[in-house]
Amino acid sequence: MPSVMVVDDAAFMRMKATKMLSEVGYTVSEASTGAEAVEAYKAQAPDCVLLDITMPDMDGLTALKQIREHDPNARIAMVTAMGQQSIVMEALKAGAMDFVVKPFTADRVIGAVKKMIG
User: Fold this and answer.
1) CB within 8 A of 61, min separation 6: which ones?
2) pLDDT at 93
3) Model confidence over 1-33: pLDDT tens digits?
4) Rg (CA), the chain
5) Tag placement on the chain: N or C end, fewer CB within 10 Å?
6) Nearest to 74 by CA among 107, 100, 51
7) Which domains occur in the chain, in start order?
8) CA pair distance 69, 42, nearest whole angstrom
9) Across residues 42-50, what is the average pLDDT?
10) What is the pTM of this model?
11) What is the rounded CA–CA span in Å between residue 104 and residue 86?
12) Is residue 52 helix, strand or coil?
């Protein structure tokens, strides 16, 4: 089954997304910071990533750029709170394939993953 890495500094958001995805058969790994996500991506090479924009230590936009530098074909969807449209636009220009707005639904999360990995 395809693998998805869920990156969010909020444990409950990671658990919520992980539960949604694992219930439909995806293999899910987690990271809690941008820096952790970059290292985990290099080690695990997941099929796609759900990447929160706002995190301490390294934000999602920086992590996106570093992951795409390592793997130009990385499939990444940004997870955003309402009101972060300018950052979302910058992320899309930097190679993000989609975005999911919090609070998210299972349909939206699974839809974003299916869009990225077909």
Assistant:
1) 53, 87, 90, 91, 94
2) 96
3) 899 999 999 999 999 999 999 999 999 999 999
4) 12
5) C
6) 51
7) 3-117 (3.40.50.2300)
8) 11
9) 98
10) 0.95
11) 19
12) strand
